[in-house]
TrEMBL record:
This is Glycosyl hydrolase. Belongs to the glycosyl hydrolase 88 family. Keywords: Hydrolase. GO terms for molecular function: hydrolase activity. Gene3D superfamilies: 1.50.10.10. It comes from Paenibacillus glycinis. SUPFAM superfamilies: Six-hairpin glycosidases. It comes from the Bacteria. The keyword Hydrolase applies. InterPro entries: 6-hairpin_glycosidase_sf (IPR008928), 6hp_glycosidase-like_sf (IPR012341), UG_Glycosaminoglycan_Hydrolase (IPR052369).
Length: 396
């Protein structure tokens, strides 16, 4: 059992979070035996579909195992997480299959493993650290200096993606910050900051909503305009996109200390929370046509990501003091409201369904994992619970 003292950020009774944590931790332990060193993505008929190690979601399962391991020290969880990490490391040879989401993939596997080994007093994990540094180099290599953005994807699907950047990439930037710090090379930080500033300028709207994809001329770098991507329309507000923006800007604040990222995260947070239905879990897009909206699926993954992002933003606002302290309290209360609803109405604690959170939506327009469980929804739900119980350290 890892020895630590948890410091809660709230005086309110969070017994419900302890209870939910115990149930989630127990389910992760049982899933570790049935899923093993594989890469669950979304559920179909109650069972997670396992995918390849080069999929963008491949880091979330080992990440979840590390979240549980650092609380209970169960060696079985560590072995499975390490076996996942070895498979992820092999994908570093398959250059054409990788893209900007190496940040998601390697922050929650290789970086998490290295950090856990550091925290256990073993001086880190040299192999895992090297894998994460290689991944960071691949990510840095996707930077377009003319347009000051990180290119999202290769030209797959026969479509030219050379000038495409996407909102999710804010969550990949911590890998660059971490790598630059580890090897004392400021170039990584400069790339991360330039990309985040382009997102601030081109993705974030005055009302706090964001687009999913923004296109630049890859040759001149000129901003062209937004695309719908996984959202309902180019000018709509894909719910998970908003949650990536909220958490991603909060993490940019964590790594740089810059107020403009906290302000951006808070603007997105105010928008996100103001648009929530009564049970605090959004429909898959915030700007769906009113007619028929209530029969549209929810996205519990967006709720879980936003809740964990709100808790990070609360940390940032508290750390910098001043007027932000009141905003921090609001962020925390909002996060608690969302997680409490997820625990009470969306969580599946038993084994008849492998996922932890029901009613998540992967890619509505393509009919991919609609109203199912998603491994990233589960990850951020567990991460938010850990934070509510006082765990401040992140893998990001
Ligand atoms: N990063 C892709 C998604 O959120 O579905």
């Amino acid at each position: 059992m890892t020895e630590h003292k948890l410091q809660r950020g709230s005086e309110r009774d969070l017994g419900w979070a302890d209870e939910a944590w115990s149930r989630a931790e127990a389910k992760i332990g049982r899933n570790a035996r049935t899923i093993g060193a594989a890469f669950p993505n979304g559920t179909i008929n109650g069972r997670y579909v396992r995918g390849p190690a080069h999929d963008w979601v491949a880091g979330f399962w080992p990440g979840m195992l590390w979240l549980a391991y650092r609380e209970n020290g169960d060696e079985e969880l560590r072995c499975v997480a390490e076996a996942c990490e070895r498979q992820l490391a092999e994908t570093l040879q398959t250059y054409d299959l990788l893209h900007h989401d190496v940040g998601f993939m390697f922050s929650l596997s290789s970086v998490a493993q290295h950090r856990q080994a550091e925290a256990s007093g073993r001086g880190g994990d040299a192999d895992a650290k090297r894998h994460a540094l290689i991944a960071a180099n691949l990510l840095a290599g996707r930077y377009n200096p003319q347009g000051e953005f990180i290119r999202a994807w290769p030209n797959w699907d026969g479509e030219d993606h050379a000038g495409w950047a996407i909102i999710d990439c804010l969550m990949n930037l911590p890998l660059l910050h971490w790598a630059g710090r580890e090897i004392e090379d400021t170039r990584y930080k400069h790339i991360a900051i330039r990309h985040a500033d382009s997102v601030l300028r081109d993705f974030l709207r005055p009302d706090g909503s964001v687009c999913h994809i923004f296109r630049y001329d890859p040759e001149s770098g000129t901003p062209i305009g937004s695309l719908a991507g996984q959202g309902y329309a180019a000018d709509s507000a894909w719910a998970r996109g908003a949650s990536w923006a909220l958490y991603g800007f909060a993490l940019s604040s964590r790594w740089t200390g810059e107020a403009r990222y906290r302000e951006a995260a808070l603007r997105v947070a105010r928008f996100f929370v103001s648009q929530l239905p009564e049970d605090a879990v959004p429909y898959w897009d915030f700007f769906l046509p009113e007619a028929g909206k209530e029969s549209m699926p929810r996205d519990s993954s967006a709720a879980a990501i936003a809740a964990s992002g709100l808790l990070e933003l609360a940390e940032q606002l508290t750390a910098f003091g001043g007027a932000g302290v009141e905003d921090a309290a609001w962020c925390r209360t909002s996060a608690e409201r969302i997680v409490q609803s997820l625990c009470g109405r969306y969580a599946e604690w038993g084994d008849e369904h492998e996922g932890l959170l029901r009613h998540a939506t992967g890619y509505y327009s393509r009919g991919v994992y609609v109203d199912e469980s998603l491994i990233y929804g589960d990850y951020f739900f567990v991460e938010a619970l850990a934070k509510l119980r006082g765990r401040k350290e992140l893998f990001w």
